[in-house]
Amino acid sequence: MKKAIFLSILLLLTGCFSKVSPSKPNTVNQQVIENQERKIDKTLEALDKNEKGKKVQTSTLAQGIQHSLNQVTNPPIQVETAKSLNERVVSIVGSPHIDEINRIKATVDLLNSAVEEERKKGQQLLAQRDEIINKLQKEKLELNDRYDDQLWQMSDKAKKVAEEADAAKSTLNSMSGMFGLNAVIWGLKKFFISAFTAIIIFVVIFIILRLLATVNPIAAAAFSIFDMIGSVIISMFKGLTPKAFEMSNLISKQKFDEYKSPLIKIIDVIQDVKIEQEKYPEKTFNIQKDILDQLDRDMDKPEKDLIDDVLRELRWKK
What we know:
mainly alpha; single chain; 3 domains
């Protein structure tokens, strides 16, 4: 008795000073933020790639300008100034690959050619480069818009995560009150609500399948699942409380078959005598000879013992 009182006081004190805390961080919210961060990183990588592509085109055009200016003989001061400024542009954006330099020089040579056909080829090559530049510019605008949208989404999701964290913290703080009993009440409330919802869903499905089982074989097959569940539950109750079936006036299938077999034989013999009497109404029938002796021949020993038990229970036999 003293030991039980001591354990109760110890549990009470432990509950008073305990606090409810999450067992692990909210990984779902973290995953949402990390996924959004990865999207932003990919967009930034695409923007960086686009920027490098624009620099390559700029440096290539600068090399073409320099190549064209270098072809001017006895250049005036203005050309020298343009060459000087262009050299600074090249130093800022860097030099492109040697293949790009060769291609732009070939384009410039065609554009500066005295032959009209070659100038047309140069215009075509320049138009192809214009398409690349236009594509880079459009891609830059799309990536900027995407980046802005992703930042807004990141902000919205971060706010949502912060609100959920605040709500969770508020819930934890509220559950820590009343010496920790608030947590018990909250858990029981959540359990009953969840259990009630599950029961309602189960009952609705049960009723629908039970109604359809009479007309639809597929529904009848599906309803057999409920029969299996019911049999398992009944078996569990029977194993846990073996006297419950007897007290509730329920019998098992084995017991039912035990009484059913002799009852069928009794009815069968009586029915045979009844039909025989209808055929021969003038004939006299003897209970011992025509009924009891026939039953004695049809029944086996367990069935006869069962009849004797019934007779003893009815006090017709000792």
